[in-house]
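It is worth pausing here to work through a concrete case rather than discussing structure prediction in the abstract. The textbook approach is simple: state the sequence, then state the predicted structure, then interpret. We follow exactly that order.
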Amino acid sequence: MPEPYELSVSEAAAQIRQGNLSPVDLVESLLARIDALDGDLKAWVTIDREEVLETARKRAIAADWGGQLGPIHGVPVGLKDIFYTSGMLTACGSKVYADFVPEFDATSVAKIKEAGGIVLGKAVTTEFATSDPSPTRNPWNLEHTPGGSSSGSSAAVAARMVPAALGSQTGGSTCRPAAYNGIVGLKPTYGRISRYGVVPVSWSLDHVGILTRTVADAALMLQALSGEDENDPGSLRLPVPDFTAQMNESSANSPRIGLVRDYFEDYASPEMWAHTEQVAHQLSLAGAEVVEVSLPESFAHAHSMQRIVMNVECAAFHQANHRLRAADYGPRIRAGIEMGLIIPPATYLKALRLRREFRAAMNQTAQQADVLMMPATPTPAPKDLNTTGDAAFQSPWTAAGLPTVVVPSGLSDEGMPMAVQFAGPFAEEGRLLGAAHWCEQAIGLNEGPPGYP
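Step two, the predicted structure:
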């Protein structure tokens, strides 16, 4: 019998529903795991143990009574420390918000609670979800970066301290740390999950991200979190499908995979690109149809337009605090704010126009296959704690607003996780997850960090 902390979201929810597991036992197992490991990993910043255990007891009573339970009833979830959580410190990894305690829950946090989930605590973020590294360490090797900005969320899921956690992505802040830590990272379509109550980096780029250990868990979490929200002007005005049903239906058939060689082959390390081609060959042998897909010409401007928009919108949010407390910001976010403050409005508006064209072109490209595939990162997690890594393989998909998912696919020569990234058409998360689930099964990787089984 596995220990409770080893269970996935789906496994834990099923056992609780069947009466084979108490939410209290699950929470106690995870808290003991955190006590044993977090001194080295530094993934957590705030945990209200009394509140967590009290919530677990209430979930246990509800499960005993029977009746209709939410899809993640009794399952603990971690929150990146930029999600408003009523009555809980939400410091954003910054001196500027060091004492900030929200009076309401972010929509995504409220949805976790409505689905029966338990907020386990706040996971460490880089400062305001940008580029200044956090103190979190990578459980695969403490000398390597865990990535960012969802560093604590990713490390906590990888080390089995929580079965799922929320992150965010403005450039590569969910999928990159997922790849570096050997877990699944899902960035849904722009607006699929409400950003209301999530401290922004860039309003028109920010996505709520999901970090789990399996694709099926990502689908289950997406189901609980999705939906239109009148408080978020960017919220997707589309019905929420049954993502798990769509995933299961799609994964019953071998997918057509579009391998993207443009840009990614040149920018990836030789080891990473060779690994990606090896995975493509492995999937082909398992029955997938693998074809090559070319990127649109507008991809050449993707990184610059993403950076311009992000800097300007980040500066707009932080301008008042920066004017009064510039010295309290880390050097990298301060540089980004100051760059955003001097970018001419005409340049920003041109970047927005180019991005609209880019989004349309990328969506057309994504429809040439069930999923597009590329390496998740240029290299495995660097052996450098002064960086969060390179977001170059995620930021174009973030700018395009298309859904992407990262799936662990092997280990490097140094024993660090390697991963492939899949991208799908706009609002087609079910098809994306189905193909990713099929590939996950074909790859057959079930590795955890050494020393953190």
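Step three, interpretation. Residues 302-325 form the longest helix (24 residues). The chain has a mean pLDDT of 97.
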